[in-house]
Amino acid sequence: MVSGIINVYKEKGFTSFDVVAKMRGIFHQKKIGHTGTLDPDAEGVLPVCLGKATKVCDLLTEKDKVYETVLLLGTDTDTQDVSGTILNSSNVTVTEDQVRKAITSYIGAYDQIPPMYSALKINGQKLCDLARKGITVERKARPVTIYEIEILSMNLPEVHMRVHCSKGTYIRTLCHDIGQTLGCYGCMKSLIRTRVADFTLDKALRLSEVEEAVKKLSVATPPETWNYETFRELLYPVDYVFDRYPEITVLKEAEKPLINGNRISAEFVKEQPEHSAELYRFYDWNQRFIGLYEWQKMTNEYKPVKLFME
Fold first, then answer.
1. Whole-angstrom distance, CA of residue 199 vs CA of residue 65
2. 81 is known as an active-site residue
3. Which of 39, 76, 81, 177 is catalytic?
4. What is the pTM of this model?
5. Could you tell me if 268 and 253 are in contact, meaning their C-beta atoms sit under 8 angstroms apart?
6. What confidence tens digit (pLDDT) does each residue in 82-125 have?
7. What is the crossing angle of helices 16-27 and 207-217, to 10°?
């Protein structure tokens, strides 16, 4: 089985599920998952996890993200982007200074009401499925954080922005809310996700490039023997996601508790750290990544938090 992470460039017209389905065909394996939904009309960075790396899907979904978007003022749609049905429109008479002031007012924490056209579920039903039936339900506002908004260019009624935000932020809704603040409506014209955690747009591969690389790297190698080493040039290892945590190597004497997924006594680690961190990356005596462990001062041992052993 192939385990690792691929930084995919999701193109317009594909759903995130389409990307996963295509990747399953390319790698001939089912255990593949994506790390955060992108609308079909959106494009950009979509890290895809294979094999044991699927354990980090939720973790990457939780990470902050960076987008480039075009806000179109003067238009309000049911989907909060230009693909939807126009509900309201108005002339845009606001000044550039008023637009800048309204946009910067959203930097920081704010409560955002999720759009009806979203994959969120209420009482087991996706909001988008209800919206397609013409049903609108009450949604509770959720706290999100806008770390930074950089206005890249402004040619009213359009504003090109770069948005650095927390998990769960809907850029469509941000555009809608800015329009509401300005009193002239607003929706999203385009969206590109440029970063998820440490995965960036400049290193993302389109599906056609992934498929070509897999064919090239697996020449004369039967799929049943494929693993991380087969596609080392293409994949990020699982521990790439945890690079910020200090590294610890365990001794061969720790083999039994390691295999059983038990706690590891401090006497079984090669070099004791200063224990200034909460979590640590653990590697075995052959430098194979084991997983994340938490230091337990009271018992002088390390508790497994997330394991990635085959």
1. 10
2. no
3. 39
4. 0.88
5. yes
6. 999 999 999 999 999 999 999 999 999 999 998 867 777 777 77
7. 10
